Amino acid sequence: MDDRLATILRRFRDFAEEFAHLPLYGALARRLAQDREAAALLLEAQPGQDRPVLWFAAVHDLVLRRPDLPAARWYASVVERDSVPVGDPWPDVRATALAHREELAGLIATRLTQTNEVNRSVYLAAGLVAATHDQHPGTDNAITLVELGASAGLLLGVDRYAIAVDRQGVQAVAGDPLSPVRCEGTDRSLVAVRLDELPRIAGRAGVDRNPIRLDDDAGLRWLTACLWPDVPGRVERFRAAVELMRREPPPVVQGDFVDGLEKAVAAALGPAASTSHLVVFSSWALTYADRARRSELADRLDALAREVPALSWLTAEPPGAIPGIPVPRGVREDAGGTVLGLRQWRDGVEQEGLALGTCHPHGEWIDLDEMPSG
Ligand SMILES: C[S@@+](CC[C@H](N)C(=O)[O-])C[C@H]1O[C@@H](n2cnc3c(N)ncnc32)[C@H](O)[C@@H]1O
Fold first, then answer.
1. Residue 287 CB–ligand 1 contact under 6 Å
2. Cα(182)–Cα(160) distance, rounded to whole angstroms?
3. Tens of pLDDT along 119-155?
4. Atom 15 of ligand 1 has which residue's CA nearest to it?
5. Angle at alpha carbon of residue 44, lines to 105 and 235, rounded to 5°
6. What's the pLDDT tens digit per position in 312-325?
7. Which InterPro entries match (predicted)?
8. Which one of 45, 54, 112, 350 has the lowest number of neighbouring Cβ atoms within 10 Å?
């Protein structure tokens, strides 16, 4: 057997083991690990992209477009979640995939998986509270938020969502408690995170090399297709956030996040430029750039910090990914996971970089043990 196909089958097997609890993708991965003909569609992928998630996204995109196909009834994103049948989805999904193999091969050959995970607002909210903890004089506790690798810009709406965080059975809600978008997480931190201190956002913008506009139906469908339909609430939350953010979409400029930084900052800064606390945020984005590029970004932020009273660089990335952010105690650098990191400049002078703690990659829990002093 072709070495590449053997690797693809092994990846499906690993996926099936890790996500055995998922009724759709767990079951499909188990069968794909033994089905050369169906799995071979991934041979069309661009170098380095032949991962199970791309196969799943291509088929998901197809059934979102064609709800009449046999596979569609297994997708909670197409039919009502309660209407998804119990049983083996593979015969329908296999038949649909092989009947549309040309179309799927075309998607697999040209697309990259891309997400915008709204529930990450949980760790973003916690990070914003930490970043503005010192209430630096001259910043009126309002921030200008810039996201690097913003995708469709949905995390820029963090204050427009209800961020419900449970701590030992007691729930606190930050943002807009009446919002149709509800993000949920558990606070496992030693000391409770005060989400009620979420700062006001005076300006916001993002940069992405492939921004998805909120009026681009095909682009949004692909982002939906990259979500896993059998994780309850994930697709529903994404769609609700798109609806809400469409009313007042923040600009997401097209470009590389190092070269496009200044443009994104200019798009976010309004008339309050001179008094605002600039918070530059990234979540599962900088990790895709190489180390030298991340250091270059750090140098650019250092220069930018001389132009504003306060600048914070908040990152939610794997351990060891961000220059100047230590790997938290007890976390192995190669262990994956999400570290919430904070670098701060006040009046142009940098303070010590902090690893605030660790989080679930989709914000299902936060565990912060370091808050900046101030
Ligand atoms: C995994 S997604 C995360 C999106 C969003 N930050 C979130 O947490 O939901 C990574 C995003 O980073 C963008 N990206 C990756 N490398 C980039 C680069 N060098 N410049 C700009 N955007 C980049 C991708 O296009 C993608 O939208």
1. no
2. 10
3. 999 999 999 999 998 888 777 778 999 999 999 999 9
4. 285
5. 60
6. 999 999 999 999 99
7. UCP012608 (IPR011200)
8. 112
